Amino acid sequence: MPAPSPLPDHDCPLCPRLAALRTSLRTEHPDWWNAPVPALGDPDPWLVIIGLAPGKNGANRTGRAFTGDASGDLLFATLAKFGLADQGEPQGVLILNAVKCLPPDNKPVPAEIHACRDFLTAEIAALPSSRIFVALGEIAHQSAVKALGGRLPKARFGHLAEHRLPGGRVLIDSYHCSRYNQNTGRLTPGMFEAVFARALAIHESIGDDAGNQR
């Protein structure tokens, strides 16, 4: 179920280009969601996944993050393999997007990314117990680093790169699970699984450390 979280208004006007596309699609597909997409998953997660933006035929259509397209198929299959999703519902995981509305050609411009960052920052601020984050793609990485209080020159994007950020939080990077990256072999299922295997290993290590301090 969608977790309660800060979200732009249904008719958010902050990004004129995104608002114009949203208006057009509401006429073309009146039965679609066509609005900012909320967080999906556990309201008190140990793992937070940050994607880029809703896909046209995925989240923008269904109203559920990463639901209804090829990127979501790989994401949820991978989560299920590690016991982190059950029948499409994240377990111990919350999924967010750096940009909440569908951008043309899946490519938000810098002003749109910046305009939406306050919403992402507020979402993360509402998750004080979450310690492990996964960024899907470089744009999500950049927004995540800034929202988590890090510094981009010291936190460079790279698949399976790990970044220790303020408050003991850890950010793990992954190439985005887009259809394009899958089709070109830039991201294989094994590469994607390695990201979540590492997240689980860090989670277990944090649990062990906490237990040893009792």
- Tally of DSSP helical segments: 7
Question: For the residues shown, what is the average pLDDT?
Answer: 93
Structural class: alpha/beta
Q: How do the SSEs run, as a string of H and E?
A: HEEHHEEEHEHEEHH
Rg calculated over all Cα atoms: 16 Å
Q: Count all strands and give the number.
A: 8
Range of strand content: 5-15%
Widest beta sheet: strand line-up? 1-5-2-6-8-7
- Could you list the spans in which at least 5 consecutive residues all have pLDDT below 50? 1-5, 210-214
Largest sheet: 6 strands, mixed
| End-to-end separation | 34 Å
Helix content: 25-40%
General shape: globular
Structure description:
- With 214 residues, the protein is an alpha/beta fold.
- The chain is 40% helix and 14% strand.
- It has helices spanning 16-28, 59-62, 70-81, 110-125, 138-147, 179-184, 189-212, and strands at 40-41, 47-51, 85-86, 89-90, 93-97, 132-136, 162-165, 169-174.
- The strands form 2 sheets. The chain has a 6-stranded mixed sheet with strand order 1-5-2-6-8-7, with helices on both faces. A two-stranded antiparallel ribbon has the order 3-4.
- α3 (70-81) packs across α7 (189-212) and α4 packs across α5.
- The longest helix has 24 residues, at 189-212.
- 44% of the residues are buried.
What topology does this entry show?
Blueprint: H1 16-28, E1 40-41, E2 47-51, H2 59-62, H3 70-81, E3 85-86, E4 89-90, E5 93-97, H4 110-125, E6 132-136, H5 138-147, E7 162-165, E8 169-174, H6 179-184, H7 189-212
Parallel strand pairs: 2-5, 2-6, 6-8
Antiparallel strand pairs: 1-5, 3-4, 7-8
Helix pairs in contact: 3-7, 4-5
